[in-house]
Backbone:
């Protein structure tokens, strides 16, 4: 199955769903998980320097036998060591990952670079111009963080990866306005948190109602996770997810084959999500 793509503002394309090596694989050996993801159809791998597993992510890529051109690899800049630049930090990541370039390089956290965001963004542009990454972007950037770098950017960020699901969608509106203006793709982590971490919230009956309708339309099983991932996909969001189970991995990728939500269903998820403001990764965002 070919994974559908989203257009980036620099002319590149990104697979709409990525296998993440954070949370569950943080500072753990990622090789077997990467093999499982690639063997079951993922092509986009989302890593980071701070996850402490770029080396084993690279081992998984090598062991899979997949050619580099088949894959889309993302990594993220962590805290800079004294004397290091985004370019030199990426060179080290490429050594660990055992590849010549990444497809997407993100500034992981604005608060790692207080007072130096503009300088860091210039360094990201240099890494792209040097051919070490095809696209550059950011992660956990608020609207204010984006405005700071856009003042000096000659290349705007292609992506902003943030916690994104219906319980924070309302709070993300200032971000989404800037994303729309500069054609920045919104990428989500924790997108299924309302189901896995937030059971009992106002969304539960709405997701169940839509799931039942989709199942009837499809004539085949549809999961709660597929309903929420479909909502994100139809919102144009790049979804980052993970699982250690092959059947769950296949289910996530199968989301693109689930019938589309109606405009009314999309709106219902958004308005119902707006009844509860809940972050499951509050440490990645300024206090609200």
Residues:
């Amino acid at each position: 199955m070919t994974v559908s793509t989203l257009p980036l503002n620099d002319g590149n394309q990104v697979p709409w769903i990525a296998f993440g090596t954070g949370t569950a694989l943080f500072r753990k050996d990622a090789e077997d998980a990467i093999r499982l993801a690639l063997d079951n159809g993922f092509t986009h791998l989302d890593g980071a320097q701070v996850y402490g597993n770029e080396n084993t992510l690279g081992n998984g890529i090598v062991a899979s036998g997949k050619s580099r051109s088949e894959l889309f690899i993302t990594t993220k800049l962590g805290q800079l060591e004294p004397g290091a630049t985004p370019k030199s930090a990426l060179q080290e990541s490429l050594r660990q990952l055992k590849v010549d370039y990444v497809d997407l390089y993100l500034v992981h956290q604005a608060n790692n670079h207080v007072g130096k965001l503009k300088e860091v963004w210039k360094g990201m542009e240099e890494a792209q111009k040097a051919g070490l990454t095809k696209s550059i972007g950011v992660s956990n950037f608020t609207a204010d963080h984006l405005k700071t770098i856009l003042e000096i950017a000659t290349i705007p960020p292609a992506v902003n990866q943030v916690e994104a699901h219906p319980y924070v969608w309302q709070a993300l509106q200032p971000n989404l306005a800037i994303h729309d203006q500069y054609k920045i793709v919104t990428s989500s982590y924790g997108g299924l948190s309302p189901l896995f971490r937030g059971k009992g919230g106002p969304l539960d009956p709405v997701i169940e109602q839509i799931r039942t309708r989709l199942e009837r339309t499809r004539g085949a099983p549809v999961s709660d996770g597929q309903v929420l991932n479909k909502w994100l996909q139809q919102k144009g969001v790049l979804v980052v997810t993970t699982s250690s189970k092959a059947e769950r991995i296949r289910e996530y990728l199968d989301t693109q084959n689930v019938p589309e939500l109606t405009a009314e269903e999309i709106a219902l998820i958004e308005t119902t999500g707006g009844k509860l403001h809940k972050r499951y990764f509050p440490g990645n965002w300024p206090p609200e």
The chain has eleven helices and ten strands. The CA atoms of residues 63 and 80 lie 30 Å apart. The first helix runs from residue 31 to 39.
